[in-house]
Amino acid sequence: MAGETEATKEKRATKAVNNLPKHAESTNGHMRRVPTQKGFGASFDVYEADAVTHEELDLSTEDVLVMYRNMLLQRRFEERSAQMYGKQKIGGFLHLYIGQEAISTGTVDAITVGHDSVITAYRDHGIALAAGMSPDACMAELFGKVGGCSKGKGGSMHFFSNEHRVFGGHGIVGAHIPLAVGIAFAHKYKKDDGVCVGFFGDGAVWQGSFHEAANLASLYEVPVVLVIENNQYAMGTAVDRAAAEPDLYKQAAGYAMPGALVNGMDVFSVCKAMRNHVAMARRFQPSIVEIRTYRYRGHSMSDPGKYRTREELDAEKSRDPILRLKSYILDHGIGTNDALDAIDQSVKEEVMASVTFAENSPLPPLEAIYEDVYSEEGFPFLT
Amino acid sequence: MATLQLREAVRAAMIEEMERDEDVFLMGEEVAEYHGAYKVSEGMQEMFGPGRVIDTPISENGFAGLGIGAAMNGLRPIIEFMTWNFAFVAMDQLVNNAAKIRYMSGGQYSFPIVFRGPNGAAGQLAATHNSSVESIYSSFPGLKVISISNPDDAKGLLKSAIRDNDPVLFLESEFMYGMKGEVSDAEDYTIPIGKARIAREGDAVTIIGHNKSYWRAMEAAEQLAADGYEAEVIDPRTIRPFDWDAVVASVRKTNRCVIVDESNPFASVSSEIAYQIQARCFDDLDAPVKRVTSKDVPAPYAKNLMEFYLPSAEDTYRTCREVLYLD
């Protein structure tokens, strides 16, 4: 209609849908179901940056400092990992999470670690450390040592901790999204009040496994939050070069679920959004949350990053989630520069200790190659 | 002993295990309200409710992965594929997730999950609906593969598979669902995974066959008996892990071996069996190990071509006579 605003257009569309009967005659005389408001005409929540204070989130000053340390631990751990990769202490692929730490830290605030479950893709160091897995075990895993969180059998892409209910660390794009739904299905089946948060990247949205999993999640009403960590690039392919609909959160409408868009450079925005969506999941309302973020480093260590400009990278770094929280802490008198420096120092020491631990942890013994394939003891492997 | 159709034996195993353990559930296309595409799960939703016998959309990748996630988080899913042909779109879930996550996590998770459904030829359905998948999946460490030939094994081995803490692929057959057979009515009847069955004893030649091929082996053995040669027939029942001891003991006795395998020939179950026999029994062999497989082409539609495509009892009989140097 002429002169109509977007908002009124949406309202009109919603009303039109609501006015239709649940079932309507189709032209060939068969009964058919008509779309409900759940899908078409859906609205989405948007969580902007700098929109919420720590008081509004009921976070104490101590909580804020813990968050700061939590993000900084991920950052410093990965900076040191990159250095160790350069020294060839780490093999294979190394995908760094640097720039995305507000997402992991904001999420662990919203769940009960060890009761709720998380699962992610191969850029997994951040959520592992945020959830409390020991930097020692994580660094030793990168070094391929027996003291690693997966006994040196998984490497960078496959961090697991059953104790923390970190269900990996998965290397095939999108393949773990159905697992997230299955983990949530089991929470519901066992009636244990647990929720699963499943993270995956913008690239994974175009795998069929995402769409199958999203449909099953909504159909079976499982307690899952499907989190799209949109760091703008699937390896070197920008979102709008891969996506017919670059607003990825809108995928939620197709599966009749709530969807939300979150600024992932502000840990408080992530925290607020994830609390809301985890609460929905606990009431068996799954949802899709797109968190927009940015990875400062390459896709992996071998990526020269020629698909983006220096200016773009610098602009994104100026929105850094750790610097943002640091400014917030200083502006709100939560901590002094000295106090924050002391946190940084203690984090650096913890990370250096993890390197020492990893260096000193033994290599897996050769006989370990036949261990952990099956639960059954004594499987007759061909030799 | 009770006489059951193979589909009834599979159903009985699932019912008993679901009654025994609340963590066991059945999920798949048409398993609930339709009672199973081949009526294997007839009436089970009424017995256990829609929370434990669960229809899915046509999303093999999705619901196979859902089952794997549920297994990681403590449940014991039975995932039915309407046929194994349709499970190729879920192959990533089976070979990358079910088979490997335990290893990649350093043994932190178990995967007590059964994927089951009919395998191999099912008539004039052309190439995409006649795949035998045991050779492919048996090459992936982390999986176990069972392929059954009769109702008794179906019940005993499926119960064991459901109780097993590792992922088991359980291969049935459309052609055999209606086949009747005696099934033990021993309470809590299970058959150990990884143990072959000597179905017929003899000293002239060992014939190895699983699933439908077992019956071709038995038919060939009858024909050989009429010629005065007693074949020993082995049904391996489990493909991975394979019962090498049973095969080696038999070949040491008969000095000859023919393998019947519905797989396409290249890098198939029969290839591995033949390799293992030459490596383990070289000095015992009086003839080359031979095999009868499906032809090295996609399955055709035309009736005569399809009959020619599959390994037959006649081919098996003729091949046995070859290794006995009778012709």
Describe the fold and architecture:
The complex is a heterodimer of chains A (383) and B (327). Chain A has helices at 6-19, 61-86, 101-110, 125-130, 135-142, 177-190, 208-220, 239-242, 251-254, 267-282, 310-317, 321-331, 337-360; strands at 23-25, 31-33, 45-47, 117-119, 196-201, 224-230, 233-234, 237-238, 259-263, 287-292. With 383 residues, chain A is α/β, with parallel strands linked by helices. Chain A has a 6-stranded parallel β-sheet with strand order 3-9-10-6-5-4, sandwiched between helices. Chain A has a two-stranded antiparallel ribbon with strand order 1-2. Chain A has a two-stranded antiparallel ribbon with strand order 7-8. The radius of gyration of chain A is 22 Å and the shape is globular. The termini of chain A are far apart. Mean pLDDT of chain A is 91; it is low at 12-37. By secondary structure, chain B is an alpha/beta fold. Chain B is 37% helix and 19% strand. Chain B has helices spanning 6-20, 44-48, 60-72, 91-98, 101-104, 134-138, 151-163, 212-227, 244-254, 269-281, 303-309, 313-323; strands at 2-5, 24-28, 53-55, 76-80, 114-118, 144-147, 168-172, 180-183, 197-200, 205-209, 231-235, 238-240, 257-261, 290-293. The N and C termini of chain B lie far apart (42 Å). At the A-B interface, helix 6 and helix 7 of A face helix 3, helix 4 and helix 5 of B.
Put the structure in a nutshell.
The complex is a heterodimer of chains A (383) and B (327). Chain A is an alpha/beta fold.
The pair of chains with the biggest contact is:
A-B, 52 and 49 residues
> If helices are DSSP runs of H or I spanning 4 or more residues, what is the number of helices of chain A?
13
Radius of gyration of chain B: 20 Å
Strands of the largest sheet of chain A, in order across it?
3-9-10-6-5-4
Q: Roughly how many Å is the radius of gyration of chain A?
A: 22 Å
